[in-house]
Design goal:
The complex is a heterodimer of chains A (166) and B (271).
Chain A lengths: L3 H4 L4 H16 L4 H4 L5 H12 L6 H15 L5 H22 L2 H26 L6 H28 L4
Helix pairs in contact in A: 2-4, 4-6, 4-8, 5-6, 6-7, 7-8
Chain B lengths: L1 H15 L4 H31 L3 H38 L10 E9 L7 E4 L13 E3 L4 E8 L4 E5 L6 E6 L5 E6 L6 E4 L12 E4 L11 E9 L8 E6 L8 E5 L3 H5 L8
Antiparallel strand pairs in B: 1-2, 1-12, 2-5, 3-4, 3-12, 4-5, 6-7, 6-9, 7-8, 8-11, 9-10, 10-11
Classes of the chains: A mainly alpha (166), B alpha+beta (271).
């Protein structure tokens, strides 16, 4: 571990790359039925990196990722930025507990976190425009996200170990 | 905390002013490749399908298209005569001549993943030529929406089914004017503020009026699917189905505003 200072912040490109991949999945064309249940890929990847690297990935990453998603989806700037900054903040508060939780418990927390993100974004959208669907329907993506959390977690952990991200 | 305040400030700034347009434009350049990339698997699928066609299939398709072309050409012949006649009649009425609109084709590279919005992303932007905000977008069957955001290499189209969208139409059969508003669902539009006594029937074709200067006059928009009288309500409750095949678009047409309409003061009619 001689090169400790140099490798302390290794792997930022990898983090960014996984986020870009998540954004790609976010706009991937899906049939109308599945579209309703599209998981919040960006939120999932963001939450993972906050749990894994809380000293580096924090609220401002959440803000940046959210801003990116705002442009990606063409909504009012700040809608997802607000939601993801909030989620990042909550995750930062709880990351120590999250790390020792069992997979099922983690999924439950992820449901709450993505649910928060979805509902905050929904509230903003409701204020700035018109929403068609009820808020309960909007929680479906959060549910799917929670179900997919374990898979995302395993894949990203592999990525993190592979590329020495720390 | 700071991030939250910043986000709230951004929200306000973007909602009320146009200060953030450069930011949006810049980020758009990053986002557009993602839309292109997300569209790529579909493209590849289509390409594979084309490559794996048999000769017999292609010949069959060719024959079918030739027949169709013949029919359309025959219709176009009559159209020339009708157009000339229309111009003469308009001269008689002292009304201005309608100019042919120019169209350009754009490919749909993405649709909005947000179920609360009905939008498309197309592969034409300010770099490729004159796409402008408020430009009308058609498919082969009818009007489908308007351009709301122009990026460098891609643009966003707001569909007529979006809950934030409304446009002025008239019934083709008798010229009864009304407003057609989106409902947020893919195949349903609503006709608003039609008085109980108005003559609107199931199956009526609704065409754009061009009032408001945003959309060109006379393109089919929707077809009435049901008319219900509700006792105690001041207006009829009318459902319509969009003519354009909004769910399965692969190519769309962008209409350049004709000269006459461009001279009119452009007031927004999209609510």
């Amino acid at each position: 571990m001689l090169n400790e200072p140099r490798s302390r912040s290794a792997g930022t490109p990898v983090v960014v790359l996984t986020l870009v991949l998540a954004a790609w999945l976010e706009v991937f064309p899906l049939p109308e039925m599945l579209d309703q249940a599209r998981p919040e890929w960006l939120a999932l990847v963001l939450i993972y990196w906050i749990i894994a690297l809380p000293h580096r990935v924090g609220v401002f990453w959440g803000f940046g990722v959210g801003l990116f998603q705002d442009v990606l989806m063409g909504v009012v700037l700040g809608q997802h930025a607000l939601a993801y900054a909030l989620v990042a903040y909550i995750t930062l508060l709880a990351y120590k507990r999250l790390r020792v939780f069992s997979p099922v418990q983690q999924s439950g927390i992820v449901f709450l976190l993505t649910g928060t993100a979805v509902l905050v974004a929904y509230t903003v959208q409701n204020m700035t425009g018109t929403t068609v669907q009820g808020p309960l329907m909007m929680l479906l993506p959060a549910l799917v996200s929670a179900l997919l959390w374990r898979a995302v977690f395993v894949v990203l952990r592999q990525v993190r170990r592979q590329f020495w991200v720390r | 905390m700071l991030a939250l305040v910043l986000a709230a400030a951004l929200l306000l700034a973007d909602q009320r002013t146009s200060w953030l347009d450069p930011v949006r434009q810049g980020l758009n350049l990053v986002v557009a490749p993602l839309h292109y990339a997300a569209h790529w698997p579909l493209d590849a699928g289509g390409w594979m399908q084309q490559q794996l066609r048999t000769r017999a299939q292609l010949q069959q398709e060719n024959a079918r298209l030739e027949r169709r072309l013949l029919i359309l050409e025959q219709k176009a012949q009559r159209l020339a005569v009708l157009q000339a006649e229309n111009v003469r009649l308009r001269e008689l009425l002292n009304s201005s001549e309608r100019v042919d609109e120019q169209v350009r084709v754009a490919e749909v590279i993405g649709s909005d993943p947000d179920p609360n919005r009905r939008e498309l992303v197309i592969n034409q932007g300010s770099a490729g030529g004159d796409v402008y905000q408020g430009q009308a977008v058609l498919d082969s069957q009818g009007l489908i929406g308007q351009v709301v955001e122009v990026g460098p290499v891609s643009s966003r189209v707001l569909l007529i089914t979006d809950a934030n969208h409304a446009l002025s139409v008239k019934v083709n059969r008798n010229g009864v004017r009304s407003i057609v508003a989106g409902t947020g669902r893919a195949d349903r539009l609503e006709m608003r503020y039609v008085p109980e006594t108005a003559d609107v029937r199931k199956g009526d074709l609704l065409v754009s009026t061009g009032l408001g200067g945003r959309y060109p006059n006379g393109y089919p928009v929707a077809e009435v699917t049901s008319v219900t009288h509700k006792p105690g309500h001041a207006f009829l409750s009318i459902d319509a189905k969009p003519r354009g095949r909004l769910g399965r678009l692969s190519h769309v047409l962008l209409v350049r505003r004709s000269e006459i309409q461009a001279q009119q003061p452009g007031g927004g009619n999209a609510e």
